[in-house]
Amino acid sequence: MTQLQERIHICIAKIIQQSPQVKNIFDEIYQQGGRVLLVGGTVRDCLLGCLSCDLDFEVYHLSFDHLQDILQKFGKVSFVGKSFGVLRIHGFDADWSIPRTDSFGRKPTVHLDPDMSFAQAFRRRDVTVNSMGIDVVSLELIDPYDGMADLEKKILRATDVNFFVQDPLRLFRVMQLAARFDMKVDETLSQVCKTMDISTISVERIEQEFLKLFTKSAYPSKGFVWLHYIDRLHDIFPKISFHKNFYQRLDAVANHHKFTPEQKNMASWALIVQGLTDDVLQQVAVNQKINPDQILALSSFLKQYIGSTDLIARIAKLSWYVLYVPMMIKQDNSVAYKWLAYWTQPYFNLQFLSEVASCWYNQEDVEAFVIEAKNAKVLHHAEEPLLQGTDLLNHAQGKELGDLLKKAYELQLHDGIHDKSKLIKKVLKK
């Protein structure tokens, strides 16, 4: 058995091991005259020696209705994309589809053809390394566009240029694939991407490609280097002036062993925001801290790439407060650390802030920051306000109540008052 055959065998065996039911589905489809191919990025990952969690099966020689009838024997079937002929069994994370040709745009036309040739079926896929299939029974590799050869050469090449340009999101897909797998983009493909119109792509689709870049690549900087090579970097990020150490810091975030994927994504975007022009950052720097009204400049920028308002708020805060780390160590003031811990919640704590800062600054400075935050006892959580709204309801309401609570917390931190009754008396006296 060759190394390639061994990887294919292991891949299909793992799929069956993780979901034993799938073997019965394969058998039923073949008994009914069908043929099942594992297709797409999962095949690429399989040939690289790793199993993707995204399973995509393409079924040949059976009609869509026939396939649906078979799948219904094994559970509740739902449409992932009815117009595209994609089915999913409840409880089993995999897509089942019929070979198709389709167009792109708001109202794509789809033509299902179960007897379509492999070459025609795979032609619509983006790059050759994603245009392969594996017969789940015979374990035969179907490779009409020499994707395996390109994978070995580490080259990204369009399966069919005419199909590739129909979906402008593919520019971003090439960006993240090049970075994730350390692959060189074919010159023809680079030139095609150079002129693609990306103005119609939804924020949500762009966000997903950057998410893959920041969380699945050890060197996301390579994606940005390629964007620069094809003269699209400042087209995509028109307001960003990239710091000379940007690439180094971006890769440091990607390789930080303590970061979750969510934290890598958040920190990577915060690093990009650091490159906003001074006039934009100046709009944020009001009273030396951020509040919901003051992050509008950052938010308007991030809304072009991120759909979640909560994530935007997290990134905006992080991008600003990471600037505080080198300033804080010069203050030697525990109250300042307590305030910083309070401002950053509930989005993150000073421990996370220090870990992000470790990708930005001198390690000795960051270590000093951590020591001071520990001494102030706010490294992991902020000091909780002693007074709540209910404690002062009899004395104020609305904005006045909010001002009193803010003043009470200031007194608590600065004067070290931890007795509720004493604090109430002092804040009302003030």
Description:
The protein has 430 residues and is an alpha+beta fold. Among the domains are: 151 residues, 2-Layer Sandwich (Beta Polymerase, domain 2); 41 residues, no CATH class. The protein has 23 helices and eleven strands. The strands form three sheets. Strands 3-4-5-2-1-8-9 form a seven-stranded mixed β-sheet. Helix 8 crosses helix 11, helix 13 packs antiparallel against helix 14 and helix 22 crosses helix 23. The N and C termini lie far apart (83 Å).
Briefly, what is this?
With 430 residues, the protein is of the alpha+beta class. Helix content is 51%, strand content 9%. The strands form 3 sheets. The protein has a 7-stranded mixed β-sheet.
Uncertain segments are none
Class of the domain at 3-153 in CATH?
A: Alpha Beta
Categorize the overall geometry. Answer: elongated
Q: How much is the radius of gyration in Å?
A: 27 Å
Structure annotation, total helices? 23
How many beta strands in the DSSP annotation?
11
Any descriptors?
single chain; 430 residues; alpha+beta; Beta Polymerase, domain 2; seven-stranded mixed sheet; two-stranded antiparallel sheet; 23 helices; 11 strands; 51% helix; 9% strand; elongated
Topology, pairings included?
Blueprint: H1 3-18, H2 21-31, E1 35-39, H3 41-47, E2 55-60, H4 64-71, E3 77-81, E4 86-89, E5 94-97, E6 100-102, E7 110-112, H5 118-122, E8 133-135, E9 141-142, H6 147-153, E10 155-156, H7 161-164, H8 170-180, E11 184-185, H9 187-194, H10 203-216, H11 221-229, H12 233-236, H13 246-254, H14 261-273, H15 278-284, H16 296-302, H17 309-321, H18 324-328, H19 334-344, H20 350-357, H21 363-375, H22 398-415, H23 420-429
Parallel strand pairs: 2-5, 10-11
Antiparallel strand pairs: 1-2, 1-8, 3-4, 4-5, 6-7, 8-9
Helix pairs in contact: 8-10, 8-11, 10-14, 13-14, 14-17, 20-21, 22-23
